[in-house]
């Protein structure tokens, strides 16, 4: 574990945790349990919250989205993007646009750098491509 105990949680991890048919579900459940036992500081952004809620509601239904929001998200610190974070993220998105990154991912990268978090709980290669460690 790095000196900074903060782990950023991405939509891909949240979704895998909630969908028992997802190919990463077992790994996500084991990692989630491990992170909780280690008292890791879990961080995400309101952009990831919105993306995850929409994905869960669309694929698994309202009840799954509601359960995730009430239970899983309750142990995660949500960083609310302000105008400055949004603008920095948009500039990053423009500069990396040909790599097919989402604005949500760019907000995540900028937020992680601002919070000095170098590890992500995700199943998205873009985090590693940006130099972050994957748990």
Question: Can you characterise this structure?
Answer:
By secondary structure, this protein is α/β, with parallel strands linked by helices. The protein has a domain at 6-80 and 119-128: Rossmann fold. The protein is built from seven helices and five strands, in the order E-H-H-E-H-H-E-H-H-E-H-E. Strands 3-2-1-4-5 form a five-stranded parallel beta sheet, sandwiched between helices. The longest helix has 14 residues, at 46-59.
The radius of gyration computed from the alpha-carbon positions, rounded to a whole number of angstroms, is 14 Å
Our count of helices gives 7
Distance separating the two termini: 9 Å
**CATH second-level architecture of one domain:** 3-Layer(aba) Sandwich
| Order of secondary-structure elements | EHHEHHEHHEHE
Look at the helices and sheets and give the structural class: alpha/beta
**How much β-strand is present in the residues?**
5-15%
Helix content: 55-70%
Shape: globular
Total count of strands = 5
Unreliable parts: none
- Largest β-sheet summary: 5 strands, parallel
Mean pLDDT reading: 95
Pick out its properties:
single chain, 135 residues, alpha/beta, Rossmann fold, five-stranded parallel sheet, 7 helices, globular
Question: What are the SSEs and their pairings?
Answer:
Blueprint: E1 6-9, H1 11-18, H2 25-37, E2 41-45, H3 46-59, H4 62-72, E3 77-79, H5 83-95, H6 103-114, E4 119-121, H7 125-129, E5 133-134
Parallel strand pairs: 1-2, 1-4, 2-3, 4-5
Helix pairs in contact: 1-2, 1-3, 3-4, 5-6
């Amino acid at each position: 574990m790095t000196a900074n105990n903060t782990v950023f949680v991405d939509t891909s991890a949240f979704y895998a945790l909630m969908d028992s048919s997802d190919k990463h579900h077992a790994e996500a459940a084991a990692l989630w349990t491990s992170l909780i036992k280690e008292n890791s500081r879990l961080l995400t952004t309101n952009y990831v919250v919105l993306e995850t809620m929409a994905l869960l509601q669309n694929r698994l239904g309202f009840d799954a989205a509601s359960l995730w929001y009430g239970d899983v998200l309750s142990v995660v610190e949500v960083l609310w993007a302000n105008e400055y974070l949004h603008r920095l993220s948009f500039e990053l998105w423009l500069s990396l646009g040909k790599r097919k990154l989402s604005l949500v991912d760019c907000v995540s990268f900028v937020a992680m750098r601002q919070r000095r978090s170098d590890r992500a709980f995700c199943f998205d290669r873009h985090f590693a491509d940006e130099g972050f460690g994957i748990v």
